[in-house]
Amino acid sequence: MTASVVGSVISLWRYPVKSMMGEELDATEISEQGIVGDRAYALIESATGKVVSAKNPRKWAKLFDFHAAFIDSPTINNIPPVEITLPDSTKLSSEQENINELLSNVLGRGVTLASTAPPQLLLEEYWLDMEGLPHRETVTDENIPAGTFFDLATVHLLTTATIERLQHLNSSGRFEMQRFRPNIAVASTTNNDFVENGWIDRTVAIGEEVRLSITGFCPRCVMTTLPQGDLPNDPSILKTALQHNKGNAGVYASVVQGGTIRCGDLIQILD
């Protein structure tokens, strides 16, 4: 088997609570369930039983103003409580008896913080009125993988080459990794257009231990356009991806072999 270096890890991210801001890591364990602790928690809307997601910003526009971080380091066998920082900087613990009431009050809708996903879950996705999307100016119900809080897959990779290409195509937009919420940000060794597209159905080695199977494109949605931190609301972010890469940016993967990933690890395609 031959291996070709395609980049290196420049940042790692996990998101303890789905659709909230997350934690940047220097190193992390990864298992068949993805980066340990990623999307370990989610909010469930009391009225509908659906997963709360920023994919429907008409309901959940405030979610990107919440930050989530683990109180202790999670392990494969132990997911610790999570601390949630509210938009006003108030800090809450998932162990508080009134956590659901407090979160519901801030969000203006009844929610429950869950750490176990039911077998079948739906989330709502709002589609902008934008050419190239499969739906326009509507909200649809979308299935998510059984027993998880992930959208489509357990691991998401994105290269600097793709970010730089999108920026070149739309110089007025701010194309930053933060908008796209990858687990693994890759410093690419090439400037080829949307280089990850060529990784699909191939195996990627990260460092000495981890092996990922690249399973498909990462289709982008309204979340990339939303304001977060000092990034403004910008529909042109999604429009650029639609016009030049069928709405995709980055790839999804499943874990073939777990282990430890560190910033600086080489990323290789195995042939």
Explain what you see.
Helix content is 14%, strand content 36%. Strand 14 (203-206) and strand 15 (210-219) form a beta hairpin. The chain has 271 residues and is mainly beta. Strands 1-13-12-16-15-14-18 form a 7-stranded mixed barrel. The protein has a 3-stranded antiparallel sheet with strand order 4-3-17, with no helix packed on it.
Euclidean distance between termini CA atoms: 6 Å
Radius of gyration: 18 Å
**DSSP summary: helix tally:** 5
- Overall helicity: 10-25%
| Secondary-structure-derived class | mainly beta
Strand order, sheet with most strands: 1-13-12-16-15-14-18
Short description:
The protein is mostly beta strands. The chain is built from 5 helices and 18 strands. 40% of the residues are buried.
Which helices and strands occur, and which strands form pairs?
Blueprint lengths: L2 E12 L8 E3 L1 E5 L2 E2 L6 E4 L11 H4 L6 E4 L11 E4 L5 E3 L5 H9 L3 E4 L6 E7 L10 E7 L10 E5 H10 L7 H4 L3 E5 L14 E4 L3 E10 L16 H10 L2 E10 L1 E4 L3 E5 L1
Parallel strand pairs: 12-13
Antiparallel strand pairs: 1-2, 1-13, 1-18, 3-4, 3-17, 5-9, 6-7, 7-8, 10-11, 12-16, 14-15, 14-18, 15-16
